[in-house]
Predict the 3D structure of the following.
Amino acid sequence: MSQTIKLLLVDDEDDYRRSCGKFMERLGHTVRSSASGAEAMTFLDREDFDVAVFDIDMPGMNGLELMQRVQEEAFDVEVVFLTGKGTIEACVQAMQMGACDFLTKPCSLVDLEHRVQLASQRGKLKKENQQLKAIVTRNRPAPKLVGNSVAMKDLSRMISKVAPTRKPVLIEGESGTGKEVVARSVQQQSDLSDQPFVTINCAALPQQLVESELFGHQKGSFTGATADKPGLFEVADGGTLFIDEVGELPPELQPKLLRVLEDGSLRRIGCHRERKVKVRLIAATNRDLTEEVKAGRFREDLFYRINVLTLNLPPLRERKGDIELLLQHFLPRGWSFDDETLETMVHYHWPGNVRQLINVIERATILADQQVITMDDLPRELVH
């Protein structure tokens, strides 16, 4: 089935350019036409295109020079070349530069449209491969929120209301409470469940890398930037981006995040061209962002932008009734606790929350002689 394509047509032959543009528009495609390479660059600077068709032999900036500019500016567009019989070698050179196809003039408009469709499909496959390489999670089973406490039941009800909206969500809770599990639950209950779910933890990266990870960079923009790199906003385009510990986001990057949330616009480091993305943001924090705003460490306008819908995840000490359920949920099949050990773990205050509970179970299963966990298998802080 043919797909609607946003096409840039660059050819200095007026009659051919007009007839080709009208033909493509009749098929439902969106077409921008240009008679020169210089004019084409202005279109590429302002807009995103799926496919561009370049004539090789043009006055001023020719097709190869235009292709070189496309590479230098890292425009995300598939290029098809048109050439006369005497410039086949130039088209081979263009293919080596990254063009995906070429046609010899005169060619039928039907054939050209078919090549444009193939180029568009290639572009979509390249984007999907980028997403897979970035360890994007698709079709992952919905994470299980474990707990029968009033707080967890209220949280589950809120998730069911929040998930379908596509509005930004802020998850508040102490470290280790399971904020990413909540984020995945929101995504899985939304209509974006089959789209990319991409995660970044601002506290786990050096500040100088956070910008590159979120927004991407262009080759040569800083030491070590040996290739163009899409940011996670681009990788998550059409899906969900989960920013954990958003309160750790450096102040100088907060305006860039605000811009993406306001109109979907971003720039890679070292590139002046704006790109457009459509991403649902889920953010999480263990800080009190209201206090961070008062202290001048977090922008007030960004806080209100990400805080459209708020989910509060209580610490484990405030839902004691869920501890035994969590212990049984994370305990490997065939394992058990003796009575004293189970009682000790249920009454422990768990300052590290669910993350600490999981670590204690993993440690105990390594140290236990049998498949029964005893007091001897627990870390010192639980016993004393």
Summary: The longest strand covers residues 78-83.
